Model the fold of this input.
Amino acid sequence: MEATYARQKIQDWYLLYSDDIYRYILMMIGDHEQAKDLTHDTFIKAYNSLNRFEENTSDKNWLYKIARNVTIDYIRKRKPIQFITESFAFIPSKEPCPEEIAQLGESEEQLYRSLKKLKRSYQEVIILRKIKELSIRETAEVLDWNEGKVKTTLFRGLHALKQQMIKEGYEHDVI
Done:
C-alpha cells in the first residue's frame, strides 16, 4: 500500500473515530492521559497494520478491535496492585475533564461506578453494545466472539450491573 495513501487513510480515520476510540479506552482504564496515549498507539498500530486491513471489514470495528488489544496489553503490563486499586475508581485521574463532569448526571455517574466493578468481559460488551451502540455483529467482530456469546454475555453483564447498582443502594430502574 502506498505510504501517502496509508497516511491519508489513517488521518481520515483519526478525524472520524479518535474521540470514540478515546472514550472507549477511557471507560476501560479510567485514566485520561493514558487513554490519550493508548488512542495514539491504536492509530499507530493501525497504520503499521494497514496492509492487513480487509476492505470488506468495517474500518470502525477494525479500529475498536485494535484499541481493545492495545488496552488489554496495557492492562496486562501494569503492576497487579496498581490495576486492583485503579480498577475500582470511578474517576481515576485526579482531575476529570470539566465537560465530563457537566455531562454526567447522578444516575450516569452511579452507572459508570458500578460498571467499573464488573468483570472485564461484562464491561467490554456493555460499553460496546449499550454505550457505543454497536450492533451485535459489530460487537462480536470487535471482541472476536460469536453473536451468541455477545448476547449471553450482555444479558449476564446487564444482570450483574443491575445487581451491583442495587447492592450500592441505587433505587431507580436504569437498565
User: Anything to note?
Assistant: Residues 128 and 139 are 6 Å apart (CA to CA). The two ends are 45 Å apart (CA to CA).
